[in-house]
């Protein structure tokens, strides 16, 4: 590095700076540099190889007129909103139940959380099997006498995304439950005593006192779930491969298919830039709330 | 067991308790069912699977599907089962975990105890970067890896895992080292200890719990990765998750559900073992790493 006018400033804590070089490189080259590179090349007509021939918003126009992309977005919305609502709801209720000073808390918590240790590929395959109409839930219910019972979400285009949702929730609610439990444990016992003395029913205490107090936990949880939702890829690949037809396509899969199989890099870059944009909408307000207001050292 | 103390509750079968335990038991059954079905299916022969339902226990227990999944199932051109993927995953896992934790612990230490100018800027980019969809960065990384000659190799994937593990691990270590009493650090400085001496002699011995948490997070995360494995390695280097998906979702041939389920369990075994052995730490790690922010 070239010597500057004030070498003392640069060489202060030299060891610390050298030690932090991998972090700086990652932050600047990978996280910042690579993202900017992709955004820039999303305005080119790169096909098999990236090339710097700029075509303005062409790729984006093509993207938003592609039926497959529109379905991907629709699926992401359905999957995302429902999985956010249900995982928060189920996660919180389960955490509240576990927080009642019960016996076997560890056992229950272990059972609820173990799916989180499994990969999305494993989760997807298991649920593909369970939802298989010939052998799975449908067949079992039919064999018990309800001959007309139909439950084959993965084979019906209109509802296939809900089949993916079932698997996603099974895998992810345990983590939400854990985060919520950590949040609940952070609430002062005295709050509960005071509420009981005042004769406030339990559900009201949760709804109007405890949940508002857990706002930071909720925000962090929502950010974690939301950024995971946008990335959802493995689960769909393993469970449905995007089918039947294109019924369970998601943006992450669209990006992958265009970049590595469709030989249409420009389209992939444009689609991934849209993904970045949607994440930014969630992250920027959060980052501002978290780091913007109060600077801490 | 450190249960609740004080006088024993008078009514054990109150309506409240029945409601709580009833709900938890029903929910637990639901969560355990897929695991049960996986195990049961993997122990049946194909004729039995075609006849019975998925929840029925096996009439004749057979371990043939397990053997086939491990050593004989075909993925693409190779027919040596998941064993190849397993060893690939191990070869990817060990250096990635070691490298990412060494780098992140030193980063966290530098950030927490040696606040130098500009460090916060890099740290902020790093943390925000953790939320950027991978899809935005995967192609430029392909180019970078190709330029340095690591594309398709196991080492390229190790590098990618090390990079993407950095934000969360650095955050964990930084938060942990920030909570170490400052007097300790100052006393060491007065005694003339430098950057590395303080790291090795004071911080490292104190940081054991956070190291365990970091190891758990990285082992489960890297083992379960699919996207990076499929993009940055060639078929002979595919990690286990990618191989599993290829075995199960291959289009040709009759679907052997028992082999598929055995393969699925085999792939899930490592993270599950980590999770069951270190369950409490895992929970604490997730909660601490995420809620603290």
UniProtKB/TrEMBL annotation, chain A:
Primary place of residence?
membrane
InterPro entries linked to this entry? ABC_transporter_permease, MetI-like, MetI-like_sf
Coiled-coil regions listed in the entry: none
Q: Name one GO cellular component term.
A: plasma membrane
Q: Which parts of the sequence belong to the ABC transmembrane type-1 domain? A: 73-288
Any one Gene Ontology BP term? transmembrane transport
Q: Which PROSITE patterns match?
A: ABC_TM1, PROKAR_LIPOPROTEIN
- Topology versus the membrane: Multi-pass membrane protein
Does this UniProt record's set of keywords contain Ubl conjugation?
Answer: no
Subcellular location as annotated: Cell membrane
Regions crossing the membrane: 21-43, 76-98, 110-130, 159-184, 205-230, 269-289
Keyword annotations: Cell membrane, Membrane, Transmembrane, Transmembrane helix, Transport
Q: Which superkingdom is the protein from?
A: Bacteria
Q: Which family does it belong to?
A: Belongs to the binding-protein-dependent transport system permease family.
Under PANTHER family, the record lists: ABC TRANSPORTER PERMEASE PROTEIN
Identify this protein by name: ABC transporter permease subunit
Q: Which organism is it from?
A: Algicella marina
Q: What is the lineage of its organism?
A: Bacteria, Pseudomonadati, Pseudomonadota, Alphaproteobacteria, Rhodobacterales
Automatic annotation (TrEMBL), chain B:
- Tell me which Pfam families the record gives: BPD_transp_1
All residue ranges annotated as the ABC transmembrane type-1 domain in the record: 86-278
Q: Where in the cell is it found?
A: Cell membrane
Per the record, membrane topology reads:
Multi-pass membrane protein
Keywords of the record: Membrane, Transmembrane, Transmembrane helix, Transport
What GO cellular component term, any one, is given? plasma membrane
Q: Where are the transmembrane segments?
A: 18-39, 92-112, 119-142, 148-173, 194-217, 259-277
A single GO BP annotation from the record? transmembrane transport
Q: Family, per the entry? A: Belongs to the binding-protein-dependent transport system permease family.
Q: What is this protein called?
A: ABC transporter permease subunit
